[in-house]
Amino acid sequence: MLDLPETPAPEARDPAQTAALHREILDRLGPAPIAEDQLIRDLSRAARHVTPAITQLEMQGRVRRQAGGLLALDPGA
């Protein structure tokens, strides 16, 4: 049995805060891809908050990840 360190629980976020962050991300993205790290810098937010939000938007089919860590709006969304 592996003895792994405890993983801290994700920070609880208010649904309104999550929705606001999703809106900020979607407002910054367009059909032309941008680098994920550039998006995080543009938002002036911690990566630990932005990255899970991007993943949620990907799972909803609203954001598409491209080669090289580039992100764009999903044209079909």
From TrEMBL:
It comes from the Bacteria. Gene3D superfamilies: Winged helix-like DNA-binding domain superfamily/Winged helix DNA-binding domain (1.10.10.10). It holds the Pfam family WHD_DprA. Residues 10-69 form the DprA winged helix domain. This is DNA processing protein DprA, putative. It comes from Pseudooceanicola batsensis (strain ATCC BAA-863 / DSM 15984 / KCTC 12145 / HTCC2597).
